[in-house]
Amino acid sequence: CLPHGWTWFSRAQCQSGEPPGPDREREKRWAELFDQLDLNKDGHIDIVELRAGLASRGFSRKSLEKMVEAGDTNQDGVLDFEEFTQYLRAHEKQLKLMFHKLDKNNDGEIDVAEIRDCLRSMGVNISMNDATRILLSMDKDGTMTIDWNEWRDYFLFNPLTNMEEVARYWKRSMMLDIGEQLTVPDDFSEEEKKSGYVWRQLMAGAMAGSVSRTGTAPLDRIKVFRQVHGSSDFTGSVLTSFQVMWKEGGPWSLWRGNGINVLKIAPETAIKFTAYEQIKNVIRGGNETRTLRVHERFVAGSLAGATAQTAIYPMEVLKTRLTLRKTGQYTGIADCAKQMLQKEGVRAFYKGYLPNLLSIVPYAGIDLAVYETLKFAWLNRNIGLADPGVMVLVGCGAVSSTCGQLASYPLALIRTRMQAQASLKGAPKLSMLALIRNIVSQEGVTGLYRGISPNLLKVIPAVSVSYVVYEYTRMMLGVDIEGRRGGKGKS
C-alpha cells in the first residue's frame, strides 16, 4: 500500500493501519528528517549519510558515531526508521529536562541572563556579549529568546545529555601548534581544573605540537637558514634548499634542531598556562567570577607568553644553534650547551631575548583580534545554525596565527640572527637596531621577511596534523571533543 515517493512517515502509518495520534507533527517531522538523511533510500542511515546530511551543522565524526551507537539497538552499525525515532524520542526527553533547567522563570523561553546564570552556576563565566552570541546562534525568529522548538532543533543531533556538556560545547576550544607561539585554551571551569581535565587537554596539545613540529621540521630548518644567511646562501626554491641540506648531511640533517624544539613544548605549555591563570586572578582583583574583557585577555596572554619565553629561552637559543650546525659540529644538546658556555658565557643563552620579547605583543594581539573577528563574523552570518564546527575553528586559528606571524616576523628574524651570531665566523656582533638598519640598507624592507615562504608553507600541514593528533590524543586520554571523560557522563 506504499505508492512511490511516500515518506517514511507514510510507510509507518500504512503499516500500523491507525491514524496519527497527538504526536502527529513530531512523527511527521522525524519521518521527513529520516527521508532526507537516507541518501541511498535503502531504509537505513549509516555514519557516512549522517556526515553528509549534517555537514553544515559542524558536528564531529565522534559525535555522530555516539548518536549511532546510542540508537543502534540491534548492533548492525546503522539506524533503521524505528531505531532513529526511538533515539530522537529519548533524546528529546533529555533536551526537555535541560530546557526546563535553564528556564528558571518557567515562561517557556530562555533569555541571555538565564544562559549566563546557568553557566556561571557550573563555574563557566562568560560575558553578556558572549551569552548573547550563544543565544543568537539558536534564535531563528529574532525574538532574542529561545523557545522549546529552537532549543530542540539546535541540539537534536548532538548527543549531549546534561548542562555541563552543553556548557563545554558552547565554550569549545582547542590547542593548535604551528611551531611558533604556543596557544593555550582559555577559561577552564573550576570543575575541569579539579578533575584533571585541564592537564589531559594540555598534554594532548603538547603531543599534537610534537608531531606537527616534527612533520614540518625540514621547512622550519630552511626558514632558519634563510633568516640567518639572508640572500647569500639558500637562494632559489624550497626544493633547492632541501637538496643543499641533504647533500651536506644526508636525510637526517633535515631534522636538525627538532629534538629540542619538541622538548621545550611541555615546560612552555605548563609555565604559560600556570602564569596565565595567576595573571587572570590578579587582573580580576577580588572578584573571582568576573569575566575578562578582550583587552584584558590580551594583556594576560602576552604576560603569560613573556613569562614562559623567559623561562625556556635558553632552549630557543640551543634550538637555533643545533638547527644551523654542520655535520659533526656538536654531538648533541648537552655538547652544544657546554661549548656555548665555555666559549661565550651565560649571556649567550639570552642572545636575541629583547626582540623575542617584543614580538610576543604584536603576535598575541593580532592573533587574538583576528581569531575573535573571524569567529564572530561566522556567527553573525550563520544565525540559527550550530556553533562553529571544529573545521571553522581550525580555519580561524590558522588564519589568525598566520596574520600574527606576518606582523611579528621581522622581530623573529632579528632574534634568530642574534641567536646565531657567535656561530657565524667573522660576523659582527650587532645590536637589535643595528641589525635592522643593516638588513634594510643591504636587502631592503623585504630582507626583514627573508625565509617567510617556507614558514607560510608549513601552516596548513602543521595545523592539520596538530588538530588530528590533538583530537585523537584527547580521546585516548578519555576526553572527547565535547569534553566528556570516557564518552559517558560528566567529567
From TrEMBL:
GO terms for cellular component: mitochondrial inner membrane. The keyword Metal-binding applies. Solcar repeats lie at residues 196-282, 292-377, 388-476. Keywords: Calcium, Membrane, Metal-binding, Mitochondrion, Mitochondrion inner membrane, Repeat, Transmembrane, Transmembrane helix, Transport. It is found in: Mitochondrion inner membrane. It is a multi-pass membrane protein. Residues 25-60, 90-125, 126-161 form the EF-hand domain. GO terms for biological process: transmembrane transport. Pfam families: EF-hand_7 (PF13499), Mito_carr (PF00153). One of its GO terms (molecular function) is calcium ion binding. InterPro entries: EF-hand-dom_pair, EF_Hand_1_Ca_BS, EF_hand_dom, MCP, MCP_dom_sf, MCP_transmembrane. Belongs to the mitochondrial carrier (TC 2.A.29) family. This is EF-hand domain-containing protein. It comes from Salarias fasciatus (Jewelled blenny).
